[in-house]
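notes to self, project folder thing:

trying the whole complex as one job this time. last attempt i did each chain seperately and stitching them together was a nightmare. two parts in total, labels are on each line so i dont mix them up again. if this works i'll redo the older ones the same way
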Amino acid sequence: MAKTLANIFPNVIYQGWLGDGGWWTSIVQTLYMTFWSAIFGGILGLVFGLALVVTDADGILPSRHLFSVIDKIVSIFRAIPFIILLAFIAPVTQKIVGTQIGTTAALVPLSLGVFPFYARQVQVALKSVDHGTIEAAQSVGATNKDIIVDVYLREARSELIRVTTVTLISLIGLTAMAGAIGAGGLGNMAISYGYNRFANDITFVATLLVLILVLIVQILGDFLARILDHKNA
Amino acid sequence: MAETIIQLDNVSVTFQQKKASVQAVKDVTIHIQKGDIYGIVGYSGAGKSTLVRVINLLQQPTSGRIQVGDDVLFDNGQEVISTKTLRQKRRKIGMIFQHFNLLYEQTVIQNVGFALKHSNLDKKAMQAKALKLLDMVDLADKADAYPAQLSGGQQQRVAIARALANDPEILISDEATSALDPKNTNQILDLLQRLNTQLGLTVVLITHEMDAVKRIANRVAVMDDGVVIEEGSLLDIFTNSKEPLTKEFVGAEKGSKAIAALEDAHLAQLQPDEIALQLIYFGESVSEPLVVTLYKNFNVEANIIYSNIDVLGETVVGTNFVVLKGTDDNRQKAIDFLKKANVVVKQIKAGDVDHG
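result (full assembly):
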C-alpha cells in the first residue's frame, strides 16, 4: 500500500511531514495565516461595515461626510489587486512586524486585503435588517448601542455568518498568493514545490488539502447560519 | 374638559429629495385628549404615518410645535428635548406597526424584555413584568417561542406587549391591523379598546379601514394629501361629514349612489304632497316603529327608499331615505315629531341629494 502510494506520489512523499516545505508545516502555515488575518481583517471589516450602515442616509447616525470617507477608503483598498498590495504595503509591514517576509509578515497584507471585501459584505448583511425593526427599537427608547448590538448584529447574525464563510473561503485563496513573500502555506506548496518543479503530484495533493479546508469552512458556516436563524419557523 | 395629551400645532414635514421637495404633512393641527381613541384615516400616501411619527420624533418635522403631556418636544424648527430625555419620553409612547417589527432572533419574552432594558428593574423583576405583559395579551404560553412561529395576530399582540412594557400613556397604532385577516383584526382592535378602558391608554389609530375606526374610535381625523380635511367626533363624522372624501370613507357614497339610481323613478317625480327626507337616528330611537307611528298619528305615509344601519362603537346609527306623503300640515307635524324623537331630519331636493 505504502509502496503503491510512493509510486503514484513520489514527490509528495519526498516532501516529508515536518520541516521546511513539509506538509504539516504548510497546513499549519495556511491555518495560521487564515486564522489571524480573519481576526484582524474581520474586526476591521466589521467596524467599517457597521460604520457604513450606521452613517448611511437612513442609518441611526447619518453623516454624509463620514459615510463618503469610509466608503472611499473601502473602495480604494478593494480596487488594489492583492498581489500588488503585498508589495505596495511592504514598508508598513516592516514597521508593524519588523520584517517584510515570512508567515507573520503576510498577516498585514492579508488583513488589509480581506477587510474591504468583508466590510462590503457586512454592509449588505446589516442592510438586510428591516428599517421598521430599527424604528420599533427606537420607539421603545433603545440607545444606539442597543440598536447596534441587539438589532443590527443580532438580527443579521445568520447573514453575517454566511458572508463570513464566503470571506473566509476567499481569504484561504489569498493565502496562496502570500507565498510570494515567503509566507509558505499550501498555496505556496502547490506553486513553488509542485508547479515550478514539474511535480504535478504535489500540486494535486496541495489543491486537495485546500479543497478539504474550504469544504470544512463551508459546511461549518452553513450549519451555524442554519441553527442561528429563527426568521423562518 | 378633558386634558390634552398630544398637541400638534401647525406641523409640517417636508422631505428633501434630489430635485423636488415633497410636503408630506402640511400645517396640521391636532389636539388629542387623554383617554381618546383617535382615528386618523386616509388613503396611503396621505401623510398619516409621517404625521404620527412626529409624536415621538421618529420623524423630525420641518416646522410646528409638538407637545406630549407636559413636555414640549419640538418648537421653532428644532428639538427642544435632549436625546436622553427623548429616549425616556419615547418609552412612554408605545407604538405598533403594520409589519409588527419584532426581533426575529429573540424569543417572545426577550422581545418584551428588550423594551425593559433601561427600566431599572433587576433581571427577575424584568422577567416577571414581561410575563405579566404577555399574560395581558393572552400569550404567556408562547413566551419561549420565536416570533416566526406565531401567527400574524399573535405577533401583533407581542408587539403590543412590547409597546406597553414601560407603562406608556399613549399607544400609536400605525396600520397595525392592515396585514391581518378580519378575525385577527377585530381581536387586535378589541384588545386596544380593552387597554383603553382598563389602563386609560390614549390610542392613536392610523388606518385606511373605516371599519376599524367605526369599531373603536371616538374621534376621527380624515387626511388627504398631507392635510387634515375634516375632524370631529365619530358620530359627527358619520352623520355630518362635509368633505366628499370623508363621505366616501364613511360609506355615505353608497347611500347617495342608491338615491341617484332611484332619483328618476322616485325623487324626480315627487307629487306636490310628497317630500323626500333623510332621517338619521341613534340608539333607542332605532327601535321605535317610526313608520307606523307616522301613519297612525299624523296620517302620513312613509315610503322607505334606502336604509342602512351602522354600528359606531356602542352606538347604532340608522340612515333612512324616505318619501313622506300627506298634507302640508301633517307632514310638518310628522317632521316636528321626528325631531323631538332625536332623529336628524334633512330634506332632500330632487337632483340635489344631500347624502350624509
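what i see at first glance: Residues 65 and 82 of chain A are 28 Å apart (CA to CA).
need to look closer tmrw
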